[in-house]
From TrEMBL:
<dbReference type="InterPro" id="IPR045079">
    <property type="entry name" value="Oxoprolinase-like"/>
</dbReference>
<dbReference type="InterPro" id="IPR003692">
    <property type="entry name" value="Hydantoinase_B"/>
</dbReference>
<dbReference type="GO" id="GO:0005829">
    <property type="term" value="C:cytosol"/>
</dbReference>
<feature type="domain" description="Hydantoinase B/oxoprolinase">
    <location>
        <begin position="35"/>
        <end position="589"/>
    </location>
</feature>
<protein>
    <submittedName>
        <fullName>Acetophenone carboxylase</fullName>
    </submittedName>
</protein>
<dbReference type="Pfam" id="PF02538">
    <property type="entry name" value="Hydantoinase_B"/>
</dbReference>
<dbReference type="GO" id="GO:0006749">
    <property type="term" value="P:glutathione metabolic process"/>
</dbReference>
<dbReference type="GO" id="GO:0017168">
    <property type="term" value="F:5-oxoprolinase (ATP-hydrolyzing) activity"/>
</dbReference>
Length: 684
């Protein structure tokens, strides 16, 4: 294998040096023509994105967990239309590898369709798959197009493409290096058959999504050729180079406005696949100097023997989620925006594992980086004119549940249930609360599917969908709450269920400026209760999360970790309570306006216990409204109690430095406290 090294991957993320021809073409791109040209690329990409969503079959594809992109001839990302920014900066690694490795044999020709899903070559994990097409204008390679999305079946040892029990890449099913799967604008039938074989659990979704990627890449290619024909090669070539230059300058201008300094954040998680224990899933040291950033991951826990590892470019992709949503939101999605940012990855960490490591659950490994960058950048921006844009971390749970089996329509299926992950809460902000049921931190412009669509497509019943009380992190500005859904197997003898998570004991995201983190996510299910029969009986009462947990309708609550390996669930039985995490809090909870606490209590966003014990608000027993005087007195007393508990730094450090978690939960952590490799892994 000749997969790119870490150094080659990081180099490929940088913009290629402009050729003399490109520089000469810049004269064609004057004021006015430039802005119109940029908008035309955006229009082409938006059309491609719409085609992509409408032609996809899997739940994630329909939800918009995808990206459509244009690259210059050298493989630099010029612009994109995205539901997710996760893939925004990393496709150049693959295209530049193809240009370097396969230009002569098998060659790159007009009408080629290239494809890969192997993270070793530049992807996130193997469910994320990309189709790429070279764009030839009058016989010359002038650009590339790409369409990338998540597909929920890869033929792995468990259904759903993200096997919790995988120990190495050899358990993960289909891993394709960059390869030519079509020529003369035709997708090869033998390749389609190969995908059908790997995707046997959900053949239709896998093969339709494959075609959707290819047709989307081709649609963008056709529209680009029309632009080349209409505007001329010199103009479009110059436009692409100027877009790269403007994007880099915009990024450097933004970074230069922040104060120089070193910002650190440590995040933790509680599991790696089926093994539970404490992990430092990210130790980030962000150094800002002039108009550059350096992000160092030294101190992150070692790689582990599960699928909860991520290759470095996958980690960078996760940081792009936050950076494009909150920092470079007004800049193009472009390789050039990351030109001023450098990355350092220690070998054999969970964020830079060995080539044979399992990485199908890379999103679980990289949640720490996605959370830590929000914390570090938020503190860097707070002292600038951008302070109103500072936000605490999104929920970043990504608790993904997979359902598989044979549907009520007699069709084999294996798909990810997109509702919960697309309804996580966002973090509290510098002037307002986070958004309740905001969406999917990995896919800012995705959408939760309609319940009716879920019930029509899959053999399941969804009796309720609601906000999840107390799930948002407390703060002066509260994190948005997540959601809860009840899932019941229906119209099928049985289904297979599994889920991926790592936040049932410890939450990864860190809050900002005295806020609290969100609550953890237990894996809840019910036994000995027939929900369809309850609905048929039509008894009085409200079927919701609280009533089920209180036992109003009988049955027994089973609580375990949210991550669960594949298991059967019989028809008309509860599959699980699908829950999504809330966002982190911003600022001290006892600085929150009492009226906001009262409104949250009325709306069911927080409990009476949280109002009294976390937000320190007192209510008039007669009216049920806030007692302003009693609240002010209680909060004043709470502040004095805090001061009384306070210690000097020396006293605190003397006791804190001697503390250590129990040895039995440190098997995944590495050495204490620096998280270095203790026992090197040996994979077969």
């Amino acid at each position: 294998m000749s997969y790119p090294t870490l150094e080659e991957k990081l180099a490929a993320l940088k913009v290629s040096e402009p050729t003399d021809y490109e520089l000469s073409c810049l004269d064609e791109v004057g004021t006015g023509r430039y802005e119109i040209g940029v908008q035309r690329t955006a229009d082409i990409l938006d059309e491609g994105y719409e085609v992509f969503m409408r032609s996809s079959r899997s739940q994630m594809g329909v939800a918009g967990d995808s990206i459509v992109a244009i690259f210059n001839a050298q493989g630099d990302l010029v612009n994109a239309s995205a539901g997710t920014y996760l893939h925004a900066v990393i496709p150049p690694i693959v295209i530049k590898f193809i240009l370097k490795r396969f230009a002569e044999n098998p060659g790159i020709a007009d009408g080629d369709i290239w494809y890969t899903n192997d993270a070793l070559y530049g992807g996130i994990h193997n469910p994320d798959q990309v189709a790429m097409m070279p764009v030839f204008f009058r016989g010359e390679l002038v650009a590339w197009t790409a369409a990338l999305s998540h597909t929920t079946e890869t033929g792995a040892c468990e259904p759903g493409g993200m096997p919790v029990s995988a120990k190495s890449r050899f358990d993960e099913g289909m891993n394709l290096p960059p390869m030519k799967i079509g020529h003369n604008h035709v997708l090869r039938d033998d390749v389609i058959e190969m995908f059908a074989a790997f995707g046997l659990r959900s053949e239709t979704s896998v093969t339709v999504d494959l075609r959707a990627r290819c047709t989307t890449a081709d649609r963008v290619r056709v529209r680009l050729l029309e632009m080349f024909e209409r505007e001329g090669k010199d103009f479009v070539t110059g436009l692409f180079r100027k877009m790269l230059q403007e994007a880099e300058q915009g990024a450097r201008t933004r970074l230069s406005s922040w104060p120089d300094g070193t910002y650190r954040c440590a995040t933790f998680s509680d599991a790696a696949g089926t093994e539970h224990g404490l992990m430092r899933n990210c130790f980030m040291t962000m150094t800002k100097r002039d108009d550059t950033l350096q992000v160092d991951f030294a101190g992150t826990s070692p790689e582990n023997g599960s699928s909860y590892n991520a290759h470095p470019q996958a980690v960078i992709g996760h940081m792009a989620n936050y950076i494009y949503e909150y920092v470079f939101h007004d800049l193009p999605i472009s390789s050039a925006t990351f030109q001023p940012i450098d990355f350092l990855f220690p070998e054999n960490s969970m964020l830079s594992p060995a080539p044979n490591a399992a990485t199908s659950c890379a999103v679980m490994a990289a949640t720490g980086a996605m959370s830590a960058i929000a914390n570090c950048v938020g503190r860097a921006r707070f002292g600038t004119v951008e302070w109103r844009q500072v936000s605490a971390s999104l929920g970043n749970g990504g608790n993904a549940s997979v359902l598989a089996g044979v549907s009520q329509w007699g069709m084999p299926f294996a798909d990810m249930l997109a509702y919960t992950i697309n309804t996580e809460g966002s973090g509290g902000r510098s002037t307002q609360d986070g958004i309740n049921a905001y969406g999917f931190p990995w896919c800012a412009f995705g959408r939760a599917p309609d319940v009716e669509n879920m019930e029509n497509e899959l053999p399941m019943l969804v009796p309720f969908s609601q906000h999840w009380e107390d799930s948002g992190g407390a703060g002066k500005y509260r994190g948005g709450v997540g959601t809860a859904q009840l899932w019941v197997a229906h119209h099928a003898p049985f289904v297979i269920f599994m889920s991926i998570a790592d936040n049932s004991i410890v939450q990864t995201p860190q809050p900002l400026f005295g806020g609290y983190s969100q609550c953890t996510c237990p894996g809840l299910s019910m036994e000995d209760v027939d929900i369809p029969e309850l609905l048929r009986a039509g008894n009085e009462g409200t079927l919701d999360l609280a009533s089920l947990l209180e036992g109003k309708y009988g049955g027994r609550i089973v609580s375990e970790t949210y991550a669960r390996t594949a298991r059967p669930v019989m028809g008309d039985q509860v599959i699980t309570l699908g829950i999504s995490t809330g966002g982190t809090g911003y600022g001290d909870p006892i600085d929150r306006e009492p009226a906001s606490v009262e409104r949250d209590l009325t709306d069911g966003m927080i409990s009476e216990w949280a109002a009294a014990n976390v937000y320190a608000v007192r209510f008039d027993e007669q009216t049920g409204r806030v007692d302003e005087e009693a609240t002010a007195a209680f909060r004043s007393e709470a502040r004095e109690q805090r001061k009384a508990r306070g210690k000097t730094w020396d006293d605190f450090h003397a006791t804190w430095n001697d503390r250590k978690p129990p040895e039995e939960i440190l098997g995944l952590y590495g050495s204490w406290p620096d998280a270095q490799v203790v026992n090197p892994l040996m994979r077969m």
